[in-house]
């Protein structure tokens, strides 16, 4: 039984999307690395400041002391396993925050399409 051409087309398009998605992920990561400051600077700024030893300890804890390629590899590996990290705003895993809002998002999508 031959494979329908539309299925072949859909599979080909999905396979072509993979490198594009990877390129977007790498580009986004690198753009954030080029921006001034980092996550620790933002955290310390929200806390009203901290001493240099505390700042360095946070950078080591979050892996920001590692080379950029190591940080990129960890970022990609965590995204591939759906480990989006911890939300400092909501004080819970980001995946939990996303799942809490998924129902409302799907409802809005469904009503907008009808």
C-alpha Rg (nearest Å):
20 Å
Order of helices and strands: HHHHEEH
Total helices: the number is 5
Tell me the span between the first and last alpha carbons. 36 Å
Beta-strand residue fraction: under 5%
Largest sheet: 2 strands, antiparallel
Mass-distribution shape: extended
Order of adjacent strands in the largest pleated sheet: 1-2
Poorly predicted spans? none
Mean pLDDT over the full residue set:
93
Helix content: over 70%
Oligomer: single chain
Main features:
mainly alpha, 114 residues, extended, two-stranded antiparallel ribbon, single chain
Q: Can you describe this structure?
A:
- The chain is mostly helical and 114 residues long.
- The chain has a domain at 85-114.
- It contains five helices and two strands; from the N terminus they run ααααββα.
- It has helices at residues 5-34, 39-47, 52-61, 68-80, 94-113, and strands at 86-87, 92-93.
- Helix 1 crosses helix 4.
Secondary structure layout plus pairing:
Elements: H1 5-34, H2 39-47, H3 52-61, H4 68-80, E1 86-87, E2 92-93, H5 94-113
Helix pairs in contact: 1-4
Summarize the structure.
By secondary structure, this protein is mainly α. The protein is built from 5 helices and 2 strands; from the N terminus they run ααααββα.
